[in-house]
Amino acid sequence: MKFKLALRKKCLEKRNFFSKKIGNDCLKEIDINLIISEIKSILKISSIAIYHPTKSEISPLKLIKICKNLSIKICLPIIDKNNNELIFSEFDNEKSLKKNKFGIYEPININKIIPDIVFVPMVGFDRNLNRLGYGKGYYDRTISKLRKLKNIFVIGLAYDSQMVTCIPTENHDEKMDVIITDKYIYR
Ligand code: ADP
Ligand code: MG
Predict the structure, then answer these.
(1) What atom in ligand 1 is closest to the CA of residue 144?
(2) Which of 43, 64, 104, 114 has the most CB atoms at less than 10 Å from its CB?
(3) Ligand 1 center to 181 CA (angstroms)
């Protein structure tokens, strides 16, 4: 979709600008703890999927410590070359990771987990919890599959400035359940 392409460029410029301005470690621990405790009141959380931040993506790495204290497993995505979906494998330590074809760190060992919460990086978003990604649909395919398997919670992460009035959506686009930015929580 042409409109998505132009919007991606604009949103990525903003993301690059803000990651330099405020740094990528700008999520508020209080916001993450609040969301986790809310979800915990409705479903049992055994594992949470995050991502290893690349380029100007906002960092979810503080989840590692938070989850350790709560005895929740942390996992990271690995590209499944057979179907271009993401599978999640437990994160052990930085040494047990290797770079994939996009230069993103993935666990070396595959120990497949179906996470209860999935944190997702975003290029852009709107107030209706629609997400714009890099344009390859990895998360759309993955979330759609996981949602058929179990009741998962999907949380999009972005700088607040990546919000646009309206993300043009297609049938295959998966919405976020919550979006957390450096400033606000959108539900
Ligand atoms: P992104 O979400 O990364 O911004 P798009 O939503 O534009 O990217 O999707 C990129 C491509 O991925 C599209 O061409 C779309 O056909 C494909 N895609 C997304 N979700 C699915 C799905 N569930 N099944 C098959 N193809 C999909
Ligand atoms: Mg999409």
Answers:
(1) 23
(2) 104
(3) 24
Q: Is the pLDDT of residue 1 over 80?
A: no
The label of the residue with tokens 């330099």 reads: 20
Ligand 2 mean position to 137 CA, how many Å? 5
Q: Please indicate whether residue 125, judged by its CB atom, sits closer than 6 Å to ligand 1.
A: no
- Tell me the whole-structure pTM to 2 decimals: 0.96
Domain boundaries, the chain: 2-186
Of 130, 110, 113, the closest CA to residue 179 belongs to 130
Model pLDDT for residues 37-82, shown as the tens digit of each residue: 999 999 999 999 999 999 999 999 999 999 999 999 999 999 999 9
CB of 169 shorter than 6 A to ligand 1: no
What pLDDT was estimated at residue 32?
97
Residue 135 Rama label (left phi>0; alpha psi -120 to 50; beta): left
